[in-house]
User: Fold this.
Amino acid sequence: MSQISYFYYSFVLLIRDRFFSIFIFLLTSVISYFLFLSFNIQTLASGLVKTSIHPVFNSIPFYIQILCLTTFALLAIIKAVHSLGDIGVMLAVGGNRIGCILILMHKDILLLLSGYLLAFIVQIFALTDSVWAGISIRDIFLNLINALGQSLLISLSATIIAGFFITSIDPYQAIRRQK
Assistant:
């Protein structure tokens, strides 16, 4: 009999919690769309003269990026707390803390990457050619890598921190709190 991997087990947990996973996937897609769009707007605006009346309007893409990245961190914490009962059961039957945190990280990566894929596809088909005319293909992919890297960094950092707090709780209390 083969050993169950952390990746497979996190995938099974996502399938088991279908409604929550679909909700997080769609929310991640929307947030990723706006984050990627803000990076593209910032790239377009970097070569243009700032003609805004108020200087706050020049930094709107930056505020959108901060809002989206903060939302990714909060979603990572919510996903970790949602798995409190599963982690309690795993720890109660003898699982280790690092394995539980790896399962949380795999779930986070699966949802984040699938949401980014959908957001990227929607953005490519939704925007007109006139919007993309000012951005080269190289800049588009650099913006995608930049947005994905920042999101993964923020989200996985929040997942690791939340995972260490959640795995430090007594497993039996975690199981009772999840019910």
User: Anything to note?
Assistant: The chain has eight helices and no strands. Helices lie at 6-16, 18-46, 60-82, 84-92, 97-126, 129-132, 137-167, 171-178. Residues 48-52 have pLDDT under 50 and may be disordered. The chain has one domain: 6-178.
